[in-house]
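Provenance and format

Records in this collection were gathered into a single text stream. Each protein contributes a sequence line and a token line. The two records reproduced below are adjacent in the stream.
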Amino acid sequence: MPIPDANVIGGNGRMFGRKAHALGPGAGQWSDGFYPHGQASQGPGWAPGQSSCSGWGPGCGGWGPVGSFDWVGPNFPDHVQPPGLVSGLAGGSGNVPPGLTGYPVDIDLWFSDQLIDSDATLRVSTTTVAQTFGHFSDGTIFEWSCSSGVLSGSGQRVNWTPDTVGTATVEVCADRPTGPTRCLAKEFEVAAAPARVSIEGVETVLDLGFGRFASVTGHIVGAAPGTVELAMFKHTDVHYLDDAPITLESDGTFSVLAFLFDNVSRINVVAKAPGVELSTFPGCNAHWCWGDEDPASGRHLPVFPDQVEVSDVDIHYLRVSTHPDPAVAALDDRRASIPVLGTADSYLYRASAESEQYYLYDQATVAIGLVAAGEYARAAALLDGLQAAHLSDGSWPFLMWDNGDPYWWDGDIRYTGANSWAVMAFNAYHIATGTTTYSAVVIDALDYLDSLRHADGARMPLRFNPSDLPSTTWDERDVNSFEHNADALSAFAGHAQVLGYESHPGTIADLEGWIGDRWNGTYFNPGTHTIFGDNARERYLDTQTWGLLALGGVDTMYHDGLRNDCSVFFDVAGHVRGLTGLLGFSDFAWSTGELPYGPFIWSEGTLGYIAALDEVERATGTTVMCEGFGSDDLYDTMSQMLLDAELPTSTSNAHPEYTEVPGTAALGWWLMVDAGLNPFRPWDAL
């Protein structure tokens, strides 16, 4: 996908445009790039370079005996949530297909002992569709999720919805070049799908200044007439039941006229059994009224009595900002004003649509995203907030209160990567606007970052954190994160672009050398320990993408890191709510390639991968594909996941930190990717 090589195009001031697809934003988690876990084992499977060939692996030629393989499941992991909330997926392109009859099912298949080193064929008896997969290592876990109506996707994970309620059969066969084929069949019961609620729109009918009457419309599927009723809760600081009746038509559509005060942030439409009475809990002074976290989706929902049967809840976030770009409007609604003496209003941004926390990394990604979108005034207001939150030694806390004060929940947490991202944000603003407005704060911050450099062999990378943290078993001062040092490289190099010379001579070249030293011939190792050396036990998605973004896309050797990300982290069958068959990447794996939480799609990381693909094409004209999918395909998935300018942190998965809650960091990443900006090298856009 060629990106125009121009300074600024379009009336909105975007640096160099990507495409005119749907607009929208995202969420994400910050990855530190190095976790000394202390386990003696790296998990099941082979390790690259091992000499033993007890199973299939690199250097293990031939087939060997076909070992045993067994089912783990079928199961229904966390699909039915207390107190009866259903968070299963139902399929379709944004909506649940009317013909859905099967309840969502996850089936895990565990290959034990020897490898089934051949073509393994999955047959689903209800669809008569067969899919062939490749070679599998010992301990590989497969997932098939019922969701899309037919068997689809490729690789180890596909989407499938049974076409009937009742008994279904899945058969997996291991074929050998010679000898008998071994097959394993499993029958399981497919339950009826639950009702699924979808809010489609909230339109103002009458604006009264302090509030408005609004028409809330949507539809429900999977429920026979007369088997379900709807209710609506409005959320301010707590969840209040609205007493307006909801009309449910025979075709499954519904509508309600509701009054919404200006401080209502979101609404919840609830599907319940007929005759069940819901209410705002008395007094509204306990967690019953505040709501509770749904363990499957991570979203904050009303709490219902244990005996109440609730089929589903859909959430609609209400926009207050009227900005025409819904991503920018969503960010506007997350601002906390912290007026700075002598300046206009300044802001920090909440970590998610449902959070009251303010992370430094989020502020930086949002600021760069606003710069990429040409929203310089908004970016400056945020940078004013960061300037006000600056500590006396030139650093920032990793987490802040809404007034910019440090939130030291675990001691002196001033992660190097997040501090570097803050400098990257100021650099991006200076480069885009041609100003040096925040030079003083950048100089202080770079002096602080340079003070974290210490000897690691012949190089001088930056420490993970300036002090040891009590909650971890490892000393952060001895750890050097690849991602943090890639961030720092961008921080120093970006300021050099602004000044026309290096403020800390030799630092940029030394960081480039240390980063290059981490290349193991296939991908970048995620960091080092000053005593124990390279961390070769773990792989991180961002290590490859951020490394390439920081170094630039010219060196084709580093393109292999993106291909390695593809082979380890890529998922073609992510699902969230009614969306299925989504493309993207998870975040972490052991060096064996094992994904501890299975495959899923992490929005922020996937956007970073898109940015890396774009950087390669910008620098070399080369198109790097992942299993036949390119940058545009991944961008389209992110567009599909964009719901009311809210991008879920991830698709459904078992990781407790990656939920469906819409976050803030990838809103910034969305704006960067939409504009075609590499946040590590914004000078390349000019």
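Adjacent record:
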Amino acid sequence: MCGIFGMIGKSNVVPNVLGGIEGLEYRGYDSAGIGYIEKNKVKVIKQVGEIKNLKTEVGRVNPVSFNCVAHTRWATHGKPNKTNAHPFVSTNKDFCLVHNGIIENYAELKKQLNCKFLSETDSEVILKLIEKYYCENMLETLVKVSKLLKGSYALAIISSKEPDKLFVSKMVSPCVVGISADGTKVCSDINGIGKVDYSYVLENNNFAVLTVDGIKIYNEKLEQVKLKKIKVEKSDINNKGKFDYFMQKEIYEIPNSVNNTVNLYQTFEQFEKVLPKTIVKKTKNIIIVGCGTAYHAGLMGRKIFEQNLNINIKNELASEFIYSKFVPPKNTLMIFVSQSGETADTLKALKIAKQYGLKTIAITNVKNSSISFIADYCFYTLAGAEVAVASTKAYVSQLSMFYLLASYFKEVIMDKIGLVESTANNLKNISKQINLTKFNILANNVANDIYLSQSLYMIGRNFDYVTALESSLKLKEISYIHSEAYASGELKHGTISLIDNNTFVFAFLTEKDLLEKSLSNVNEVISRGGKVILLTQYNLKSDNVYKLIKLNNIDEFYMPIVVIVIMQLIAFHVSVLKKLNPDKPRSLAKSVTVE
């Protein structure tokens, strides 16, 4: 979850490296630092808080270095303070290390080392091991130390003993190295590596040695290996454009993200190139796996798939699936959803599925991410880079992908021609119904009503229940208001006891066949003094409703795409009204790369 960036170049690389970790700010962090070699000595500068604090200190010191590593820390072991911030320097001042990941056996290793530790982190253990086992060859030392570690890590290390080299080691945690005209780079995120001629995505137990002239990659047997060269697409990831916040910009990009995804998969033939018809015909069971917002997209995906398809479908939280004793039956297809393609729990669940011998599909927004290499088949959502921690356009793009994928399954299984094309056209038309100017005014109005709330609730049935779950998560993430989502029918089974005159309840009523039952739940809330904010496209009696949000009268099957945009905007405006930064909510990271 931390960000690492390093570079060895022909001139002073410190400004480049600082720019590199600025490009990783969206991942979430609580401290930042750089380690560099200057006049054959290892030096470190680190600060708590934002990177601008670090840049101020770097400006004061004004270091010049051809070999530098940097780090943004998201605390897992130890408080967010300067002592626990990376990089770490060895006692003998010969080695400097940054680490992304978690060392699971660090406590055991600490006991074995029996030496003084300055920090509370697991990362410092790695440095102590390097110091203990250094054999005048860092690469050999790194291979030996890596065999002692259990867990996940991407490591970048510099040493005064070998000042013309930057060493990298990878296990589970994402890590990419690249070559540019100015030198070579390492980064924990392929989107953050910046301008390079080409890059390599390291595999588990890969070790890389970076020099000014190039990169050599080795396996654990110290045999040099060749990886596929990857061209990194240019990304304007740090440009907010005319907007004050990335989240706001990304919500406004939702119509384009839907259309871009649809354009890539708008025909039967485009789907067949990725997923053969034979796989679809053999599929009797589908398990959809994800975490957080991706899990909610999967819940919606299940409901989309269940329309007229005779396939058993279930959802699994990745973090729970990895402990399950359940062995999926044969002819099970597993779909894994991850915005970043680097979500640790999802990747582990995917590897378990592969061990079962199951066919696997990945849905991700990032090309050349880990999930795209592991899964048998990969569908990309073309949402573009998403910087704000709270997912918005990526979620809507995932929903679009599920609508399209389900239509492909139906076309194959039911032998009906034109379903994919029809769904693609429907999605394009729906994207035109996302009136962001109108939605923004509605959302701001509602936000002014609720932003002082301590707690509120969201209810819905079927598709609307999933919308309630994701809407509630958005509000919690960036406003820190306690929010809970419930299936409307469950309200009377306990939760209704929490409703009083000060309670706001969002009620989603977008499915015609469920209106009668859903309205009875709304009336139950109103009779107990609850302030109902009702979202519906139907003409309903709303005299006793606190606020009515009238939705576009569109096909209710696609309503989840439209409603969630309004709810994302409400969450955004609540966050701003509370003088919070919606892009960087406390304690959260964009890419959760540790379990």
